[in-house]
Amino acid sequence: MLAFVDIRDFKPASWRANIGLVPQDPVLFTGTIAENISYDRPDASQAEIEEAARIANCEFIWDMPLKFETKSECGSGMTYGESSNGCSFNSNQSIETASVEAKDNA
Question: Is the pTM of this model over 0.90?
Answer without folding.
Answer: no
